[in-house]
Amino acid sequence: MPRTALFPGSFDPVTNGHLDLVRQATRLADRLVLAIGTHPGKTPLFSVEERRAMLEETCAPIARAGGCDFASITFADLVVAAAQREGASLIVRGLRSASDFDYEMEMAGMNGAMAPTVQTVFRPPDHRYAGSANRVDGRRRVAIRSTLGRRAPEAEVFALSAAQIRIVRAAPWCDIKRRGDANPALVAVPEVP
User: Which helix (H) or strand (E) holds 75?
Assistant: First the structure.
């Protein structure tokens, strides 16, 4: 019987840690579904359509190379509900730190109580990508391009650069920077390749 794994996340942006977990998940399932969580109270850096396109560009080839069918979906409810809709028997979660483990164990317990046939699988990313936490505001990370270059695929670094420019142009302190009396660190804009 084919096994489906659901890998939920915001994917805002897609990081090398995500790509590493996709590689790992292809060894666990025959079909991999990346589920983009949406929340009306959050303001993502990228639209759902942009995030989905990034997943298709970066993750789909990895999944297919691993012999895994690939799909991407969006969901606005519980992860376990999305897993059930997709027929997933596994939920793949990345663990970057001990604090992730505590939170994820609690969520896995609740998911298991609601859907006993859906198991949560914890996977650590490669040590090179463990610092790619999306809990750190993405808008701050894009200002540090040299660090980001190690943690995000090249296509996403370019997309992040473009998004940073959009944010800076829309920022109320952008005019202050042009007059030369703002802290340049506040409006550091990566060069667009």
Answer: strand 69-75
